[in-house]
Specification:
This protein has 488 residues and is α/β, with parallel strands linked by helices. It contains 22 helices and seven strands. Helix 6 links the parallel strand 3 (123-128) and strand 4 (152-158). The protein binds zinc ion (ZN). Residues 64-66, 74-75, 77-78, 80-81 line the site of zinc ion.
């Protein structure tokens, strides 16, 4: 028997077998069970998440010859089921809209739809990548969708639902296919390897599952690639040779350089990633995801269930998370997101990315602005007699001994808030600082970006204890501060 690629050989064949889209499978089986079958379905979601497989299963369920009516458990053996599974049934027509975009294709479809199915209950049209249809073609399709013959069902699939006209969407039942979770993919891969009697290290399976980024098809083709190199035992060494290092490993290296203030190292890691075929955008995505994980570990603690990480990778991540504090991670995400947005429209994406790496590695300098603000704040207190609230204690003891860590960063957490208090408590700038100096600090782009970052809801504002608020503050707090607007 000739070799069939895994993605085809292990395509899910029944509603029970659909991986990672259980809610959709349940909704569809309930609809079939209760006879409420819609005439048009729109399946949306990224590639490889099961849209076409589900469309074929639905078509089999509608037309299975072993049953007198649509069934939730198609037999997968009758002529109809077999032909549909291969995409070759006379009554289940699969159209790739990417290569049949024109109005003529849809006109042909409409005239064919008028005829009754050859042997099945329904004539089913599965239109893949439906967003590729031309406007005229959509209009022609709309006419059929508005008044479809009794025996016709449409199942449309798209990766870009926003390109499908609302008039089409509103005449269909929409199903949004989610990216499949890495654990679900890993479980499925392990089952397949078991069936194929192939030994594989667990770490390889996990790595493939993570690299697949939510797409089962990508996971299976990666596995195919590994198996064509080594078909009996998949070890970590084999995986190392064949597939690129997982993005979290790469992001982890970059962040290690950043924590060590090693800009050159961060630039080398970026270069390696781009050499390995990643785009700057993908690199940003992965790095943002990694920084998010570190931020959540830092802010929510080691045992948070908001991040999905393998047990063996956890100690290293927890250690890395302790290198910076929450606000600095927020700043990093802001910086990377800005980079990701800018490279899309830039002819100098590489330069922007390099600059961002250097900026990240210099995060400790950014924190020194915080120290400056702190000292300004103290000047303000000395001149106005206001007493600030006690400083918030670091919650994570482990943080204290790390390089540009909490000790350097902490003042910066307090700074904008303290500045706000100081600004509100004094009508004029403190004597030790000229109003020009105040304005300069407030106008500094780094200070402004920092303010934007900490203005979110992630951080609590330190309360001013009632005893600490004196009359002059209460009197002045409603008036706009001179020069420095804390909300600017
Ligand atoms: Zn059947």
């Amino acid at each position: 028997m000739s070799y069939r690629v895994l993605a085809r050989a292990y395509r899910s064949a029944t509603f029970d077998e659909i991986v990672g889209q259980e809610a959709i499978a349940t909704t569809l089986t309930n609809a079939i069970g209760s006879g409420r079958i819609h005439h048009g379905y729109l399946f949306t979601g990224t590639r490889g998440v099961g849209k076409t497989s589900t469309a074929r299963i639905l078509a089999k369920a509608l037309n299975c010859l072993e049953s007198d009516a649509p069934t939730t458990t198609p037999c997968c053996k009758c002529d109809s089921c077999v032909a549909v599974a291969e995409g070759e049934d006379v009554d289940v027509v699969e159209i790739d809209a990417a290569s049949n975009t024109g109005v003529d294709n849809i006109r042909e479809l409409r005239s064919n739809a008028a005829f009754r199915p050859a042997r099945s209950r329904f004539k089913v049209y599965i239109i893949d990548e439906v967003h590729m249809l031309s406007t005229q073609a959509f209009n022609a399709l709309l006419k059929t969708l508005e008044e479809p013959p009794e025996h016709v069902k449409f199942i449309m699939a798209t990766t870009e639902p926003h390109k499908v006209p609302a008039t089409i969407q509103s005449r269909c039942q929409n199903f949004d296919f989610k990216a499949i979770g890495a654990p679900a993919i890993a479980e499925h891969l392990a089952r397949i390897l078991d069936t194929e009697k192939i030994q594989a290290d667990e770490v390889v399976v996990r790595r493939v599952a993570r690299l697949a980024n939510g797409s089962m098809r990508d996971a299976l083709s990666l596995l195919d690639k590994l198996l064509s190199y080594e078909s009996e035992k998949l070890t970590a060494a084999v995986a190392e040779m064949i597939i690129p290092p997982p993005h979290d490993e790469l992001a982890s290296k970059v962040m290690a350089c950043v924590a060590g203030r090693d800009a050159a190292g961060a630039l080398r890691e970026l270069d390696a990633a781009l050499q390995g075929g990643r785009t700057v955008e993908r690199f940003c995505d992965h790095l943002i995801e990694h920084v998010r994980t570190l931020m959540l570990l830092c802010v929510c603690g080691d045992d948070t269930d908001l991040v999905d990480i393998a047990e063996q990778a956890k100690p290293q991540l927890v250690e890395q998370a302790s290198k910076f504090d929450g606000p600095t991670y927020v700043y990093m995400i802001t910086l990377l997101e800005e980079l990701r947005r800018n490279v899309k429209f830039s002819g100098t994406a590489r330069a922007l990315a390099d600059a961002a790496m250097v900026r990240l590695a210099m995060s400790h300098q950014f924190t020194e602005i915080g120290t400056l603000l702190e000292s300004l704040d103290q000047g303000a207190q000395a001149s106005s007699g206001t007493v600030a609230a006690p400083k918030k204690k670091a919650t994570r003891a482990a943080v204290a001994d790390s390089p540009p860590a909490r000790s350097a960063v902490e003042p910066e957490v307090a700074a904008p808030v303290a500045t706000a208090n100081a600004a509100a408590s004094t009508v004029a700038p403190p004597k030790s600082v000229s109003s020009e100096q105040w304005n300069r600090v407030a106008r500094d782009p780094v200070v402004q970006r920092f303010k934007e970052a900490v203005d979110g809801t992630l951080f609590d504002v330190r309360p001013i204890e009632p005893a600490a608020v004196d009359e002059s503050k209460e009197h002045a707090s409603d008036e706009p501060a001179d020069g420095v607007d804390p909300d600017a």
